[in-house]
């Protein structure tokens, strides 16, 4: 956005983008509940804190140099100028009586765009945490989050949306984050899970979700906030926002039903955890594609993602990596599905106006989408692995065995989520104690 125009923002577009930014921020507490409900009760606060802490770490780095790295003047199609908007300088201006206006990105204030994109960066980091539930030191998590967002997320956001090589030169489509958010976080999650190792007792010990209502609440908040994620990426309150809103809800519904169908066929019963996971899988897959497909395409992408991700979450048992909360099976796999299937189901009647293979567009778009997906996957995986290895060799990355057995809530935060000693008594035992 270098050389942003100075002018008067459109009030309707600005209101929608500020609302969308708030919706996307709500997704991170929603993710905290989604993940928090899936772990055992002795680790729920730690799991929630991993998401919440991302809101602190990423925000500070984003306003100092992250926004500039992602959206500053392009340097070699790889990164934005880190110093151009350091501390958001020049962007918060233009409020005097004689001012010609404020810095704009299209029709909205640059600061509204900064806020909206910040929320994407926050949740991308938070998503990674689910792969290392129950066993990562909190200090190591904070350090990993700070380094990874700096050397991976900020550059990749530039590649995709800031004028870098994926968006501008390759011409791959990622409307709202299939590559930059979901493949990016999923690949990092896989690398981190491999480096940190398996939980004690996995896979023979059952690690059942301790609070499925939390999981369902988290999924509902994610679905709600995702309308800001996808429809907000239109950048304006217009027809593109409306179109992406409807494709988002359609694909998500299809994915949930497909996941439940797979569970019914495979396991005999559909589960609430499966329903919540299917919702997230559909949201992930439609994220890059929501502006490229019509309703039938959204249904197809959602159904494929729901079914494939339902199967993919079990791959960790076959290959032996402990992805605690299925970040790889849902976000990496779902992100790849949504990104690549643009090359199949894109249609000119959708806002992007491009044709995929199914509509006679040949394989041109398909190979571009595939290259973009593979490039982000490889870069994020390799760099995340290097970061994790360095942390492991320096401050240590994993909680010790005693801390894992006790639970990270108590060992890392000196807290417990539930005061179990205060519940469970009967009227009879209470009366005896009082006597």
Automatic annotation (TrEMBL):
In terms of Pfam families, this protein maps to:
Ammonium_transp
For membrane topology, the record states: Multi-pass membrane protein
Kindly state which keywords UniProt assigns to this record, in alphabetical order: Ammonia transport, Cell membrane, Membrane, Transmembrane, Transmembrane helix, Transport
Location comes to: Cell membrane
Q: Where is the Ammonium transporter AmtB-like domain?
A: 15-418
Q: Which residues cross the membrane?
A: 15-35, 47-67, 108-128, 140-161, 173-197, 209-229, 241-261, 273-289, 295-315, 327-346, 366-391
Can you cite an annotated GO cellular component?
Answer: plasma membrane
Q: Which SUPFAM superfamilies does the record match to this protein?
A: Ammonium transporter
Q: Which Gene Ontology MF annotations are present?
A: ammonium channel activity
Q: Which domain of life is it from?
A: Bacteria
Share what the entry says about its subunit structure, partners included. Answer: Homotrimer.
Function, in words = Involved in the uptake of ammonium/ammonia (NH(4)(+)/NH(3)).
The record's family statement is: Belongs to the ammonia transporter channel (TC 1.A.11.2) family.
User: What is the protein named?
Assistant: Ammonium transporter
Organism of this sequence: Nocardia uniformis
